[in-house]
């Protein structure tokens, strides 16, 4: 072993970062003292160990020391990558350590501590060592870059898949739901086509507006306060809301509100997903009424049975009295009243079970006229004036006369009772090619909207001494006649009942527009 080379190898081992950090390099002090490098303890971890391995390889350039040098550079390269040092920065570091070695060699040569031949031999080994170092670093960075490329490719595919899934989800939400996005101040950022179509607003009209723009004023403030508290807490709210479109149409909506929260748990926006359940709610309401009718039907059956038994007995004895000519006038009156009670019980039985009703041509004009004359004395007593507007010709529908008479009598009587201080009732018959409608309008105390909705339900009444069965029976009769009832009422503004039946086709008969009125 050349003693001079061994001497230089020992001198290399003694080098540290303090030596080369003083060297002026072409890239300047600023780049050399890179913040990334300052995170690492070069004098303890990198430079000193690197100089030791280079010195050892210089002293004894065998396979073992060569592998030790490569192993160290691989470990050190991974540390550089972990510290987020770029390849250029790492090569720069290697260049600076080489400058330190060359500076040492130059000093030793100037002081004649080594010969020219030893100098060139050391240069040869140093050059080979740094080729190994640079190649190892390049391999490590290439492997890292390949790994990053594969990871990026995989991430890119994952991103594409995620974007496709998001696009599919957006399409499903837009096509199948009533969907809107709202900011932290409850202002609408986005509304899909279904949302705009339901509420009858353009997207431009909705953007920037708050959700109370389509409030129906059905729910109390506490209802929305609860919703707001729920989503402010980052929780999902689910429930049914009654909203109102621009044209006044109201819709029941199955609503889910999902808040979006930031890293601090603060809500910064939320989405609402809605489904129109108006028809479902109507169906449920119909089912509830049907259940109530079934219940009252059982009651009606027992009630009618108990009344009919004594009526039959009474009627038999009255007939005997009539046959013996004992007070025949009274007997006739009693029989008429018993028959009337029996008829009413039969009508009440319509809720107990379906039974055969014999329909025939019924003159609505004639029926209403008789009802008005029958109830007019009671109306006069209560200072109520009844006015009617009937067509000059007969208006005929196919139905059951007594049942129709019962309906009109019930509604007109209710109108009279709704005007305790007197008033006016207007009755009108209108006919078109498709429909026959009977309108009964009063200027009485009227009703609230929630009361109107409950009309026809068993035992619901607005009268102090009412039982709610009159309108229930009337609604059932109209339903059996394939008709419909529309009620409009406002508190202290009167009530209007409009009963509509389908027009009978009669091509041979023509109708004039003359109107019959009473004063």
Structure description:
- There is one protein chain.
- The chain has a 6-stranded mixed beta sheet, covered by helices on one side.
- About 7% of the residues have low confidence.
- It is α+β, with helices and mostly antiparallel strands.
- The chain is rod-shaped and about 165 Å long.
- 56% of the residues lie in helices and 17% in strands.
- The termini are far apart.
- The protein contains 17 helices and 13 strands.
Going across the biggest sheet, name each strand in turn.
11-12-10-9-7-13
Identify the overall geometry.
rod-shaped
Helix content range: 55-70%
Question: Would you tell me the overall average pLDDT?
Answer: 79
| Continuous helix count | 17
Secondary structure class reads alpha+beta
**Secondary-structure element order, as H and E?**
HHHHHHHHEEHHHEEEHHEHEEHEEHHEEE
Radius of gyration: 50 Å
The total beta strand count reads 13
Distance between the termini: 142 Å
List the main descriptive attributes of the protein structure presented here.
five-stranded antiparallel beta sheet, rod-shaped, 519 residues
Tell me briefly what this model is.
The chain is an alpha+beta fold and 519 residues long. Helices cover 56% and strands 17% of the residues. The relative contact order is 0.05.
How is this fold's topology laid out?
Layout: H1 3-13, H2 17-20, H3 28-32, H4 35-38, H5 42-59, H6 63-82, H7 87-110, H8 116-176, E1 178-183, E2 188-191, H9 193-199, H10 203-206, H11 221-232, E3 237-244, E4 250-261, E5 267-276, H12 278-323, H13 328-348, E6 360-363, H14 364-381, E7 384-391, E8 396-399, H15 401-417, E9 423-431, E10 435-442, H16 449-453, H17 469-480, E11 484-489, E12 495-502, E13 515-517
Helix pairs in contact: 1-5, 5-6, 6-8, 7-8, 12-13, 14-15, 15-17
């Amino acid at each position: 072993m050349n003693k001079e080379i061994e001497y230089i190898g020992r001198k290399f081992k003694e080098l540290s970062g303090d030596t080369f950090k003083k060297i002026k390099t072409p890239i300047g002090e600023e780049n050399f003292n890179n913040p990334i490098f300052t995170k690492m303890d070069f004098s303890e971890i990198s430079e000193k160990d690197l100089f030791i391995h280079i010195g050892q390889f210089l002293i004894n350039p065998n396979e073992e020391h060569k592998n030790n040098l490569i192993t160290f550079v691989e470990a050190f390269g991974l540390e550089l990558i972990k510290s987020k040092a770029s390849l250029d920065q790492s090569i720069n570091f290697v260049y600076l350590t080489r400058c330190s070695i060359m500076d040492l060699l130059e000093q030793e040569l100037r002081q004649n501590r080594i010969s020219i031949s030893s100098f060139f031999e050391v240069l040869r080994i140093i050059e080979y060592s740094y080729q190994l170092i640079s190649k190892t670093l390049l391999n490590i960075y290439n492997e890292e870059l390949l790994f990053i490329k594969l990871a990026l490719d995989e991430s890119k595919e994952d991103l594409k898949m995620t974007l496709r899934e998001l696009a599919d989800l957006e399409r499903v939400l837009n096509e199948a739901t009533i969907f809107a996005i709202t900011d932290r101040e409850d202002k609408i950022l986005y509304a899909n086509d279904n949302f705009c179509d339901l509420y009858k607003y353009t997207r431009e009209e909705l953007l920037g507006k708050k959700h109370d723009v389509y409030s129906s004023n059905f729910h109390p403030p506490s209802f929305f306060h609860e919703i707001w508290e729920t989503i402010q807490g980052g929780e999902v709210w689910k429930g049914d809301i009654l909203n109102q479109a621009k044209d006044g149409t109201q819709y029941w909506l199955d609503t889910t509100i999902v808040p979006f929260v930031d890293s601090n748990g603060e809500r910064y926006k939320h989405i609402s997903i809605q489904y129109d359940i108006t028809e479902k709610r109507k169906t449920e309401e119909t089912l509830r009424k049907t259940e109530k009718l079934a219940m009252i039907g059982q009651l009606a059956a027992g009630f009618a049975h108990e009344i009919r038994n004594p009526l039959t007995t009474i009627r038999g004895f009255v007939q005997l009295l009539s046959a013996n000519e004992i007070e025949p006038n009274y007997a006739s009156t009693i029989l008429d009243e018993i028959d009337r009670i029996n008829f009413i019980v039969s009508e009440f039985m319509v809720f107990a079970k379906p039974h055969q009703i014999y329909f025939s041509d019924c003159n609505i004009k004639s029926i209403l006229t008789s009802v008005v004359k029958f109830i007019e004395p009671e109306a006069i007593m209560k200072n109520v004036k009844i006015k009617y507007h009937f067509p000059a010709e007969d208006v005929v529908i196919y139905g059951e006369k007594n049942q129709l008479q019962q309906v009109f009598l019930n509604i007109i009587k209710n109108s009279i009772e709704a005007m305790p201080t007197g008033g006016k009732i207007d009755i009108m018959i209108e006919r078109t090619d498709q429909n026959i409608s009977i309108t009964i309008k009063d200027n009485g105390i009227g009703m609230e909207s929630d009361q109107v909705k409950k009309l026809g339900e068993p035992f619901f009444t607005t009268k102090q001494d009412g039982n709610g069965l009159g309108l229930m029976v009337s609604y059932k009769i109209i339903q059996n006649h394939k008709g419909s009832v529309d009620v409009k009422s406002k508190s202290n503004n009167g009530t209007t009942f409009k009963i509509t039946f389908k027009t009978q086709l009669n091509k041979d008969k023509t109708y004039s527009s003359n109107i019959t009125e009473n004063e």
